[in-house]
């Protein structure tokens, strides 16, 4: 018999008995019944290494550029020569292209790897491509590809990410992980964690926005709060922005790049094509080398380490206001509890649809009078109301033999009504 805690390894892999999703680290189990699992009891504390490439200065922004797809050898070499002349050190090109629908150009495949080898030989640039399965990994490593990235359609699939992680076990190649297409931070972190648990340490993340039905402004809305939270959760992780995929239109790429720099991203990965209007994929979001040069020359890189007394004072005032807001929210929830007691005593339903609609409308109007964005106000009020519903449901079900209502249950109830 072996205690679980004795099986913790340097790569933070845990074991458990078959059929169990989690385990107690003090339990003893037969050796024959142990199996490797992903775990929740003992989360990995990840400290990825910075991606350091000789000749690439570790200053913001680290720039990665090149076409969406490697189309022809001539096209690849043409754009590589142009951007190498600007001093860019890392060249990207898609060899295998997972597309939304069949019938489109899905990449040139393995023959394109030889073109990337020529880029290395002729320009001295590092080369990078996307991998989506173990066969891609093996082919890329055999061809001497310097860096890899996992795309959004792959990072959403834990099975695919695990296959890539297993194929990379024992290799020392930098890999960047794009966010999943849906706004799921835990899934993004899980993909990074699978690579880290396979012993890979040179890991970075690429923020490329999140899929949305509404594409009036962006192809993939940035939802900046998600990569900001990723940085908070994994402080050592290098973070790159892919403004091409967020924008969907080349005229928006410059402003998004500046926003990424203002949010302290480490680098940019920008799709660049000598003749973007003729590109075989994502033509509308690729820049010419000249456009790229102009964009980079106009970026403002602000100093994050410039504290001042005035800054400290402003932060103190913000902290005071935040604490006051939380105290008011606590009072609001106590009123919700009282409301729940009243409704229970008078046999009233929790949700009053007319009242809810009235609250949303009136608060948005009042917020606009205070120079607040109405959409912002509505989102806040919706969250407050959802928590109020949850607390009232708990009050209503006290002493009724029911368990407390989770946030998810309250959310479902609210939306059904």
TL;DR of this structure?
This protein is of the alpha/beta class and 417 residues long. It is built from 14 helices and twelve strands.
User: What fraction of the residues are assigned to beta strands by DSSP?
Assistant: 5-15%
Q: Tell me the Rg in angstroms.
A: 26 Å
For the terminal residues, how far apart are their CA atoms?
Answer: 53 Å
Task: Indicate the mean pLDDT.
Answer: 87
Shape: elongated
Largest sheet: 8 strands, parallel, barrel
Strand order of the largest sheet: 5-6-7-8-9-10-11-12
Low-confidence segments, given as residue ranges, are: 1-27, 31-42, 407-417
Structure, described:
The chain is α/β, with parallel strands linked by helices and 417 residues long. Helices cover 44% and strands 11% of the residues. The chain has 14 helices and 12 strands. The strands form 3 sheets. Strands 5-6-7-8-9-10-11-12 form an 8-stranded parallel barrel, surrounded by 5 helices. A two-stranded antiparallel sheet has the order 1-3. A two-stranded antiparallel ribbon has the order 2-4. It is elongated, with a radius of gyration of 26 Å. The N and C termini lie far apart (53 Å).
Annotate the secondary structure layout:
Blueprint: E1 2-3, E2 14-17, E3 28-29, E4 34-37, E5 62-66, H1 73-84, E6 90-92, H2 111-123, E7 126-130, H3 134-142, E8 147-150, H4 152-155, H5 158-168, E9 175-178, H6 185-197, E10 203-207, H7 225-233, E11 238-241, H8 243-247, H9 253-262, E12 267-271, H10 289-298, H11 309-345, H12 353-369, H13 374-397, H14 407-416
Helix pairs in contact: 1-2, 5-6, 11-13, 12-13, 13-14
């Amino acid at each position: 018999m072996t205690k679980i805690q004795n099986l913790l390894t340097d790569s933070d892999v845990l074991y458990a008995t078959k059929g169990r999703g989690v385990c107690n680290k003090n339990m003893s189990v037969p050796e024959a019944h142990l199996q490797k699992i992903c775990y929740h009891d003992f989360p990995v504390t990840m400290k990825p290494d910075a991606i350091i490439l000789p000749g690439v200065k570790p200053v913001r922004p680290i720039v990665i550029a090149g076409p969406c797809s490697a189309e022809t050898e001539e096209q690849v070499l043409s754009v590589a020569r142009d951007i190498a002349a600007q001093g860019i050190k890392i060249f990207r090109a898609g060899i295998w292209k997972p597309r939304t629908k069949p019938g489109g150009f899905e990449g040139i495949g393995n023959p394109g790897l030889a073109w990337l080898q020529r880029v290395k030989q002729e320009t001295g640039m590092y080369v990078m491509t996307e991998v989506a399965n173990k066969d891609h990994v093996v082919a890329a490593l055999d061809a001497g590809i310097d860096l890899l990235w996992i795309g959004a359609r792959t990072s959403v699939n834990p099975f695919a990410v695990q296959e890539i992680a297993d194929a990379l076990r024992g290799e020392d190649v930098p890999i960047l992980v794009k966010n999943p297409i849906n706004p799921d931070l835990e899934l993004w972190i899980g993909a990074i964690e699978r690579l880290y648990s396979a012993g890979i340490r040179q890991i970075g993340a690429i923020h490329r926005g999140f899929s949305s039905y509404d594409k009036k402004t962006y192809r993939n809305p940035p939802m900046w709060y998600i990569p900001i939270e990723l940085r908070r959760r994994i402080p050592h992780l290098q973070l790159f922005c892919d403004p091409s995929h967020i924008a969907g239109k080349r005229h928006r790429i410059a402003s998004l790049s500046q926003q990424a720099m203002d949010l302290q991203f480490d680098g940019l990965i920008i799709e660049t094509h000598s003749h973007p209007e003729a590109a075989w994929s994502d033509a509308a979001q690729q820049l010419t080398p000249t456009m790229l040069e102009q964009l980079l020359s106009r970026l403002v890189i602000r100093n994050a380490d410039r504290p001042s007394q005035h800054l400290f004072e402003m932060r103190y005032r913000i902290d005071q206001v935040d604490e006051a807001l939380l105290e008011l929210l606590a009072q609001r929830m106590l009123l919700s509890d009282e409301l729940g007691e009243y409704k229970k005593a008078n046999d009233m339903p929790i949700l009053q649809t007319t009242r809810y609609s009235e609250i949303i409308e009136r608060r948005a109007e009042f917020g606009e009078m205070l120079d607040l964005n109405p959409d912002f106000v509505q989102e806040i009020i919706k969250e407050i109301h959802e928590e109020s519903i949850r607390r009232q449901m708990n009050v209503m079900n006290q002493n009724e033999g029911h368990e407390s209502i989770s946030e998810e249950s309250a959310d479902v109830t609210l939306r059904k009504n």
